[in-house]
Design goal:
about 280 residues, alpha/beta, Rossmann fold, 10 helices, about 40% helix, binds guanine, methionine biosynthesis
Length: about 280
């Protein structure tokens, strides 16, 4: 079988080597990029994600802190912690892992993070700048997907990109990034009528819905590029994406695996944003 796998792990590793070098250089001028990750509560998936973020930043030579706060943390306590980090010159990136417990208003927390340290790119100032084409932190998952395609020499200009899902974290910014790069973009979502008739038109199909193996070959055009953002467990408890990988890989020209596709690229872009933030805040 032809190798049509978009190997996010390999591409991420190559980009991370470059970041590691840049961290070394920056350290010679006395600046160590610092990332603080906050998690509230004990959601097992979130704990895995934040542990990975901390480990990766340490491996690349950054200062890294993981604040594990109890589920009972109040909104005010969390805001106060963020304000403290906003004022800490050794911290260049602040990330509050989502979702938060229900008694905390996510939007208030995102607003509290200084836009200059918002390495997730979720603050309305960064979202707004991005939408009108000004420089800003870009949300890590769609940014990672753009970088992956770029790394593989895939030009999206003029391509029909169909984005399945419209979250603030992935779907919405993904479509806008594609638009900025001259793709023709269609969004498909939970109220879309006849989903497969639209996804079948995609040259590049990006799926971020959080439903295990939702996309089968009936949803995909022959030769399409398929990007799977999902991270789910199948009926046997095995990790799987939103795309039925074995079923779709035979007709896709390229496809990302889960795990080892989009996930490593997301973390890598977080590292890149933190490095860029350290450069900017120290000059
Ligand atoms: N939860 C799922 N993805 C993300 C992400 O990219 N950033 C944060 N902060 N929380 C998330």
């Amino acid at each position: 079988m032809v190798n049509n796998i978009l190997d996010g792990k390999k591409i991420a590793s190559s980009i991370q080597s470059d970041i590691e070098q840049q961290v070394k250089t920056l350290k010679q001028s006395g600046v160590v990029p610092g990332l603080t990750v906050i998690i509230v509560g004990d959601n097992p998936a979130s704990i895995t994600y934040v542990t990975n973020k901390k480990r990766t930043s340490e491996r690349l030579g950054m200062n890294s802190a993981l604040l594990e706060l109890p589920e009972s943390t109040t909104e005010l306590e969390l805001v106060n912690k963020i304000v403290e980090l906003n004022n800490d010159p050794t911290v260049h990136g602040i990330l509050v892992q989502l979702p938060l417990p229900r008694h905390i208003d996510e939007s208030k927390i995102i607003h509290a993070i200084s836009p200059e340290k918002d390495v997730d790119g979720f603050h309305p100032i960064n979202v707004g700048k991005f939408v009108i084409g000004e420089e800003s932190f870009l949300p890590c998952t769609p940014y990672g997907i753009m970088e992956m395609l770029h790394f593989e020499g895939i030009d999206v200009a003029g391509k029909h990109v169909v984005v399945v899902g419209r979250s603030n974290i992935v779907g919405k910014p993904m479509g806008l990034m594609m638009l900025k790069n001259n793709a023709t973009v269609t969004y498909v979502h939970s109220k879309t009528v006849d989903v497969s008739s639209i996804t079948k038109q995609a040259d590049i199909l990006i799926v971020a819905v959080g439903k295990a193996k939702f996309i089968t070959s009936e949803f995909v055009k022959d030769g399409a590029i398929v990007i799977d953002v999902g991270m789910n467990r199948d009926e046997n408890g095995k990790l799987c994406g939103d795309v039925d990988f074995e079923n779709v890989r035979n007709i896709a020209s390229f496809i990302t695996p889960v795990p080892g596709g989009v996930g490593p690229m997301t973390i890598t872009m977080l590292m890149k944003n933190t490095l860029e933030s350290a450069k900017k805040l120290s000059t």
